[in-house]
# Entry
Amino acid sequence: MPLRKCPYCKGLSNFSLSGQMCQGLLQGCVSLDICHNCSTPVYIVTPSHQDRNTILDSYPKLDSEPDNELPENVKVAFTEAIKGLNDGNWNSCVVMCRRALEEAMADLGAEGRDLFNRIDNLESQRRITPELKEWAHEGRLGGKLGAHGLEQKRWADKDDAEEVLEFSRWFLRYVYVLPQQLADRKAKFTPSSDEPTSQETA
# Structure
């Protein structure tokens, strides 16, 4: 089986087959593979027990593409942040999380001389909640660690990258993804102009 990236240690690794099941209503075979780098088990789904090079699904998954609802500039930055995490480039990851937040602030019309002030300004406009403001500040500080270092710590590590990416991801989802999903949901139940209203059909 070719080298593949471990979702836990993020390194390229060989994997040892620990167990496999290909029966019942399963579509393909489910295997439990052990990473040679970190000895952590990963579940994978392959088409058959002969073909273990084609991975149909896995758990846990590596971080993948950003949400489609994000504005293009935000999406570009967050895509690079995800790539940094998957490639083990922790400082690149947190710096690009910060860039994604900066692009989001510009898109949302936040005002201020720097990212700190723009995040606070967005909350003062009631565009985000106090809790979301704190999430955004965690992403800002993570990016500052990666770009300049902090007094307490000079470089980002794996935990920093995973945590900052997760804070940034959920901030962006609350700001962009959930409102769009709500709008799409409402649109399903809003009659078009040529459809009769409930009063007309009563």
In short: The first helix runs from residue 72 to 86. The helical segments are 72-86, 90-107, 115-124, 130-148, 158-188, 198-201.
